[in-house]
């Protein structure tokens, strides 16, 4: 006949291993959250916005003139755009124009962010 104490000990060991693995997963998720927050704090250049979103220099200028997306001047001819602000403006529908494909633009920006996170991870190793 099976010993009830051995069953309890087996269950305890399984739960302990599960707890260890859960802790590892939680730590990994926290690390990824930090990396994505770091990527979200990136700034994009005008060229990157035009390439990822698929807009012209003139359209980007109109977005700036109408305060559709957040930006800041770094120098007289260099503008930086916070990733989070650009993403939010596109997702909310503030940043649009005729023929604009919101989903494609969001996918391009997400792919850029994924690449940035991957780059951060590779440079950590």
User: In sequence order, what are the helices and strands, one letter per element?
Assistant: HEHHEEHH
Query: Radius of gyration, rounded?
Result: 23 Å
Query: By helix and strand content, what is the structural category?
Result: mainly alpha
Tell me, what is the CATH class of the largest domain?
A: Mainly Alpha
Work out the oligomeric state of the chains in this entry: single chain
CA-to-CA gap between the ends? 52 Å
| Secondary structure: number of strands | 3
Q: Might you state the CATH topology name of the largest domain? A: Multidrug-efflux Transporter Regulator, Chain: A, Domain 2
Task: Please give the domain count.
Answer: 2
Strand content: 5-15%
Biggest sheet overview: 3 strands, antiparallel
From the coordinates shown, what is the CATH architecture of the largest domain? Orthogonal Bundle
Average pLDDT score: 87
What percent of the residues sit in helical stretches (DSSP H or I)? over 70%
Overall geometry comes to elongated
Low-confidence stretches: none
Strand order of the largest sheet: 1-3-2
What's the total helix number? 5
């Amino acid at each position: 006949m099976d010993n009830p104490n051995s069953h309890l000990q087996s269950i305890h060991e399984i739960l302990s291993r599960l707890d260890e693995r859960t802790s590892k997963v939680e730590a990994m998720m926290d690390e990824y959250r930090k990396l994505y927050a770091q990527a979200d704090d990136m700034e994009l250049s005008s060229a990157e916005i035009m390439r990822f979103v698929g807009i012209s220099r003139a359209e980007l200028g109109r977005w700036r003139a109408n305060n559709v997306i957040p930006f800041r001047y770094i120098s007289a001819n260099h503008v930086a755009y916070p990733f989070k602000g650009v993403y939010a403006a596109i997702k909310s529908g503030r940043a649009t124009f005729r023929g604009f494909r919101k989903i494609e633009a969001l996918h391009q920006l997400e792919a850029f962010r994924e690449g940035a996170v991957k780059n951060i991870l590779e440079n950590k190793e």
